[in-house]
């Protein structure tokens, strides 16, 4: 999340405006970080931005691009297709 007093900083390499959301690809030394921000950010490519993030909400990847385990699982993440499917038979209330 972009923060004027954020603990991290980097230079915007790519800025992708997607309507209500903007993706900022920010270079921190040898690391490229993707930041999702509001669609109306006033920054431009080559601007230096400060930011921070909540580790419990972050999506982190290793050097090979594989996702690291999340610190906190979303409450719906454990649902299977079966859990999310409408009943195949009428309920007892409607029979």
Q: Strand sequence of the main sheet, in spatial order?
A: 3-2-1-4
What structural category do the secondary elements indicate?
mainly beta
Radius of gyration: 20 Å
Shape summary: globular
Characterization of the model:
The protein is mainly β. The protein has a domain at about 10-50: Nucleic acid-binding proteins (OB fold (Dihydrolipoamide Acetyltransferase, E2P)), CATH 2.40.50. It is built from no helices and 4 strands. It has strands at about 10-15, 20-30, 30-40, 50. The chain has a 4-stranded antiparallel sheet, with no helix packed on it. The mean pLDDT is about 85.
From the structure above, extract its key features.
OB fold (Dihydrolipoamide Acetyltransferase, E2P); mainly beta; 4-stranded antiparallel β-sheet
């Amino acid at each position: 999340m972009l923060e004027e007093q954020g603990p991290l900083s980097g230079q915007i390499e790519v800025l992708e405006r997607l309507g209500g959301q903007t993706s900022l690809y920010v270079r921190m030394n040898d690391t490229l970080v993707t930041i999702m921000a509001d669609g109306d950010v006033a920054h431009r490519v080559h601007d230096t931005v400060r930011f921070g993030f909540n580790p419990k909400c972050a999506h982190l990847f290793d050097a090979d691009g594989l996702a690291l385990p999340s610190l906190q699982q979303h409450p719906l993440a454990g649902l299977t297709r079966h859990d999310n499917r409408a009943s195949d038979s009428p309920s007892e209330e409607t029979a």
